[in-house]
Structure formats: C-alpha cells, structure tokens
User: Fold TSA: Wollemia nobilis Ref_Wollemi_Transcript_267_723 transcribed RNA sequence from Wollemia nobilis.
Amino acid sequence: MATSAYDLLEETRNSIEEIIPKMLFIKKEGKGRAELHELISEVSVLFLKLRQANRIIFQEEDRVKSETENAKIPVDYTTLQLHNLMYEKNHYLKAIKGCKDFKSKYPDIELVSEEEFF
Assistant:
C-alpha cells in the first residue's frame, strides 16, 4: 500500500504502464474480448486512483500555501514597521540638516549660550 499521495501516484502510473501494452497486444490480436474488457475496467479504476492522488496532492499544496500565507503575515507587519521607522528617521535627518543649514537674515547676531538662555 502506498504511504503517501506521491507513492500512490507512482504506483498507479506504473500499473497503468504495465496494463496498456497488454491491452494493445490483445486489441491487435483481436482475441480475448472478455480479458480486454477486464483490463479496461482495471485501467478505469487506476485512472480514478490517479485522480484521487492528484486531488490529495492539490489539497496538500493548498494547505502548505495557506500555512505560508499565515507565516508571512507577521513578517509583512514587521517589515512595514521597519519601513515606517526608516521613513521617519530619514524625515528627522532631513529636518536636522535643514536646521543646521539654515542661513539667517542677520548672520552677525550672536547666539546666546544655553546657561544664559535658561
């Protein structure tokens, strides 16, 4: 018995690959219609197994995608916070640079010291 959907897929594919040449041989010989119908029924069941394995694989893929999306939410939130902080930092740096580069209309006026100001 297959342990996973991929093993089931492989096992079923191998079985189909074994049966199809037998069917072609019987068809070319023109004999054994009962055996041919039996092989057709067998292949039909195997195709249903293929569809089942395919469905299981797609469901697993959807589950993994959902888990990935859920894991990305905190990362996206943290990244957004980082970008906001970087934007704010750059804004403050530009404001500081603007203040330092400020040219007064009266350059000859001296600034008052901090002690005297307070």
Summary: Residues 22 and 39 are 8 Å apart (CA to CA). Helices lie at 5-29, 33-100, 114-117. The longest helix spans residues 33-100.
